[in-house]
Amino acid sequence: MEKYAFTINGVSIHSPKVFEVNNPATGELLGYAPIADKTHVNAAVEAARTAQPLWAAKSDEERKEILMQVSQVLVDHTDYLAQWITKEQGKPMAGPGSMFEMQACVGWTQVPASLDLPVEVVFEDETRKDEMHRKPIGVIGAIAPWNWPLMIAIWQIIPALRAGNTVVLKPSEYTTIGTLEMIRLMNTILPKGVLNSISGDGLVGAHLVEHSGVDKIMFTGSEKTAKKIIQASGGNMARLTLECGGNDPAIILPGTDMESKAQDLFWGAFINMGQTCACAKRLYVHEEDYERVVQTLDTIARQMPMGNGLDEGIVLGPIQNQMQYDKVSDLVEDAKRNGADIISGGEAMDGPGYFYPITLIGNVDNGTRIVDEEQFGPVLPIIKYKTIEEAIAKANDTKTGLGGSVWGDDIEQATQVASRIETGTVWINQHGAIHPMVPFGGIKESGYGVEFGLEGLKGVTQPQIISIKKPTVQTA
Predict the structure, then answer these.
(1) Nearest residue to 433 (alpha-carbon basis) of 448, 452, 417, 419
(2) CB neighbours (10 Å) of residue 94?
(3) Could you say which of 80, 246, 359, 432 is the most buried, measured as most Cβ atoms within 10 Å of its Cβ?
(4) 440 — phi, psi (to 5°)?
């Protein structure tokens, strides 16, 4: 069985210590991923620090061109990398799965690579002119998650490189090999040291975020880990962009025609088996519409084939790991003990792999674990409400604030309700519809900072003001 390597200063580095990577659909051993030690982390950061001035000195046009070449590498190896996503993460090749993720990797490479951050004149009068220039921060330490392992790594890598930074990235220990392979392939184009990888468990991540040579941390993952990163950053004063998930509410306004919207709502909740930070995780439905909405979603859920993502026709895969599988099972069992109605699903599936059926749960409300805690799995609690005011209050009754959605036939009314939802993004008649030009980030305990578009690109720069005193005009 092959032992894979991380990339430091453009060279593939093997480690004497490795760990197994397994397929969550079958349990099959896929290979061995390397465990970095502190020496590897130091070498990766040093390589990035050495490469950064030369990379930053390249013109915008040079960096754009190189990153466009990187996007072509991703295109050329789409099938290979998509296979790794499916084998490691579990999402199917088809539908909104691994090929979809690879298309997103290409798009989120090409769009940031095409953006400009021109000099802004922030003030000017007859005596002075003040310009804001955007400068790279330095070395970016990036920590990617297991749910969209390659796509979110690209979200971190490409804007950072476009702005003239260099990167050291650590993938999740659950989905390591595909990300290491992607970075190896990207290094066939990038100058040595510009993009480096390390891998291992949380201790390796801690070495990275605490390193004195790291100038900014970009992290997508749990709130618990994010708080540790915040503490660690006190030592090196690294800037932070943190995306820590959310418990996204979706509100269906009274009387809404859901026939044309039901598929979008279903995938808004269950894309990637619900293992997406910005999935709809709590659905609020007016009491008079409840039965109709439940029946519609249940019908769709029963039509979706689940299985090994490498098989033809599969659109839903397994939960990615034992830890998350156990959490989902525990939340559903707790709901049962507390009198919830299991509309569909609700029982672990027999056979190998971490398969859990799409589960719709009724007769629940705020104050129960299945509603208050982010499930991050194929489970959707459906909560009745009597008034719009009640729905808004319950939607906002959470410590997180990443995304939310409002569904309705009257767009003006939906927009008014959306403006009162306390999240970084509120979608109308869609959920989780991100775009590489549209800033995305959370409030409350969903983190801080934004990614994507011009605002995301600004987030991997630091401003420098150049203030010019104008010459005094001498009068005769």
Answers:
(1) 452
(2) 17
(3) 246
(4) -140, 130
State how far the Cα of 6 lies from the Cα of 180, in Å rounded to an integer: 6
Residues 6+ apart with CB under 8 A from 258: 252, 265, 289, 292, 293, 296, 407
Ordered by start, the domain boundaries in the chain are 6-244+446-465, 248-428
What residues contact residue 450 under an 8 Å CB cut-off, 6+ apart? 241, 424, 439, 440, 441, 456, 459
Query: In the numeric block, which tokens belong to residue 183?
Result: 């970075």
Residues tagged active-site: 243, 277
Two structure tokens written together for 222:
């749990």
Domain 248-428: give its CATH superfamily.
Aldehyde Dehydrogenase; Chain A, domain 2 (3.40.309.10)
Phi, psi of 232 (to 5 degrees): -65, -35
Residue 1 pLDDT class (50, 70, 90 cuts): confident
Q: What's the rounded mean pLDDT across residues 218-226?
A: 95
- Distance between CA atoms of residues 453 and 420, nearest Å: 24
Distance of CA 323 to the CA centre of its chain: 19
* Cα 135 to Cα 155: distance, rounded to the nearest angstrom: 19
- Contact (CB, 8 A) for 329 and 342: no
Mean pLDDT, residues 62-68 taken together: 98
- Letter for the amino acid at 55? W
Residue identified by tokens 């061995």 is 32
> Is the pLDDT assigned to residue 228 strictly greater than 70?
yes
Q: Is the pLDDT of residue 476 over 90?
A: no
Helix (H) or strand (E) holding 361: strand 359-362
pTM greater than 0.85: yes
CATH placement of domain 6-244+446-465: 3.40.605.10
Cα separation of 153 and 207, whole Å? 19
Pairing relationship of beta strands 29-34 and 6-8 according to DSSP bridges: unpaired
SS3 282: strand
